[in-house]
Amino acid sequence: MIILSTTYGDIEIELNMDKAPVSSKNFLRYCHEGFYEGTIFHRVIDGFMIQAGGHTEDMTEKETHAPIANEANRGLKNKTGTIAFARTDAPHSATAQFFINLDDNDFLDHTAKTNQGWGYAVFGKVTAGMDVVNNIGKAMTGSKKGHDDVPLDTIKIEKVTLSE
């Protein structure tokens, strides 16, 4: 279990090591390294998702490890409250940035082993703090340093706690 302590409250996450071992281990690696502490929720779209894990408060993108294999084809779906890795247009490009689904986003699920169909790899779910997730989703947003949908008031991950 992982607790993300944010400026809006705590979000408890349970990883799915069985169906998404590569993604889960990658997320844990960044947690153990303290990588997420001090990063912000830099992309928030109400009714869709909240994204974090890559930018500092001044919108500087943090240096990451190499990308991982996309596990979106392992059966986990982008349902409300699930956590998945963000990526570029390339299917196997996820590094540290993640998002939490605010709705059932089945259009993000794997449909084919093509660039278009790969989808976004879910690797866990929120088990407590969905009220915090939804409150973050309601934040007022604007543009900042070339990025859209950035919360006007900083929403920061202050601490990450891991418990067995």
UniProtKB/TrEMBL annotation:
Enzyme class: isomerase
Catalytic activity, reaction form: [protein]-peptidylproline (omega=180) = [protein]-peptidylproline (omega=0)
Single GO molecular function: peptidyl-prolyl cis-trans isomerase activity
Top-level taxon in the UniProt lineage: Bacteria
Biological process per Gene Ontology, one example term: protein folding
One Pfam assignment: Pro_isomerase
Record keywords, A-Z: Isomerase, Rotamase
Keyword Isomerase listed: yes
EC number(s) stated in the UniProt entry for this protein: 5.2.1.8
UniProt keyword Transmembrane helix present: no
Domain PPIase cyclophilin-type residues, every copy: 1-162
UniProt similarity note: Belongs to the cyclophilin-type PPIase family.
Described function: PPIases accelerate the folding of proteins. It catalyzes the cis-trans isomerization of proline imidic peptide bonds in oligopeptides.
PANTHER family from the UniProt entry: PEPTIDYL-PROLYL CIS-TRANS ISOMERASE CYP38, CHLOROPLASTIC
Protein name: Peptidyl-prolyl cis-trans isomerase
Natural source organism: Vibrio galatheae
UniProt lineage: Bacteria, Pseudomonadati, Pseudomonadota, Gammaproteobacteria, Vibrionales
